TrEMBL record:
<dbReference type="InterPro" id="IPR008030">
    <property type="entry name" value="NmrA-like"/>
</dbReference>
<protein>
    <recommendedName>
        <fullName>NmrA-like domain-containing protein</fullName>
    </recommendedName>
</protein>
<dbReference type="Pfam" id="PF05368">
    <property type="entry name" value="NmrA"/>
</dbReference>
<dbReference type="InterPro" id="IPR036291">
    <property type="entry name" value="NAD(P)-bd_dom_sf"/>
</dbReference>
<keyword id="KW-0521">NADP</keyword>
<dbReference type="GO" id="GO:0016491">
    <property type="term" value="F:oxidoreductase activity"/>
</dbReference>
<keyword id="KW-0560">Oxidoreductase</keyword>
<dbReference type="InterPro" id="IPR051609">
    <property type="entry name" value="NmrA/Isoflavone_reductase-like"/>
</dbReference>
<feature type="domain" description="NmrA-like">
    <location>
        <begin position="9"/>
        <end position="227"/>
    </location>
</feature>
Length: 251
């Protein structure tokens, strides 16, 4: 049985988009000796690591899991970090059902985005995250649940899908282009989660906000121009009008 000072930690979705970065943080020299075993939980056939190996004193294990073997796959774990993405909401619901029959005492649900509790926008992904958190609270009273919000991922956010079309020199701001936005690198999210998981549970805040850098649209345009992107023009759309038109029919 793992000692209290070196718990067994598992990462759900360890081979996913964010999961790979969180896994790398836990296996870095700073954190890898803080846990007696690190278990990588994956539904995919391809894995980052061999099924069982050792790395600088920590046992590293890969476990295949699916909706049929969740309870078995989660045995012997004290800390669970859930990085399963938006395509896995049904799977996360199955995790909730299995949790009461495990030894997990510390749980990080799959948040790691903007704090969607601070506004009234209707959005399926945020709705599912709220539901997941409420379900965990209702079935596992003894478990410590810690939510981490980090704004938007830096690597995924500077692009036309958010109105930042650097290639064509056109940025669109909803409201003032001077309003700062919180961006956090995927690697920094990983390091933040690893740091929190290494703390005594009673000292981890229930809600943690991580902000790698806060920049406005006009500041981002200036950074891009200074590094050779050419001139970038910025259009501003009225915030209230855009909000009404967007949330009337949620996507």
């Amino acid at each position: 049985m793992a000692s209290l000072t070196r718990p067994v930690l598992a990462i759900a979705g360890a081979t996913g988009h964010l999961g790979k970065h969180i896994t790398a943080a836990f296996l870095s020299s700073i954190f890898q000796d803080k846990f007696s075993e690190i278990i990588l939980l994956s539904r995919n056939e391809s894995c980052l690591f061999q099924p069982s190996s050792s790395q600088a004193g920590v046992k590293l294990t890969t476990r295949r899991y699916n909706e049929h073997n969740l309870e078995e796959a989660l045995q012997g774990i004290q800390i669970l970090v859930n990085t399963v993405g938006p395509a896995g909401h049904d799977f996360k619901a199955n995790i909730v059902v299995a949790l009461p029959r495990t030894d997990i005492r510390v749980y990080f649900p799959s948040e790691f985005g903007v704090d969607h509790y601070g506004h009234d926008f209707a959005h399926l992904e945020w709705h599912e995250k709220k539901k997941h958190y409420a379900n965990v609270q209702s079935v596992v009273a003894h478990m410590k649940i810690f939510r981490v919000f980090c704004g938007v991922f830096l690597e995924d956010s500077i692009g036309p899908w958010f109105g930042l079309d650097t290639k064509n020199g056109k940025y669109t701001s909803i409201g003032s282009f001077r309003t700062p936005v919180s961006f956090t690198s995927l690697d920094d999210v990983g390091r933040a989660v690893a740091s929190l998981a290494n703390m005594p549970a009673e000292k981890i805040p229930d809600v943690v906000h991580v902000g790698g850098d806060s920049r406005s649209i006009v500041e981002i345009a200036g950074i891009m121009e200074s590094t050779g992107a050419g001139r970038i023009d910025i259009d501003c759309l009225p915030y209230e009008k855009y909000k009404v038109g967007t949330v009337t029919k949620p996507s």
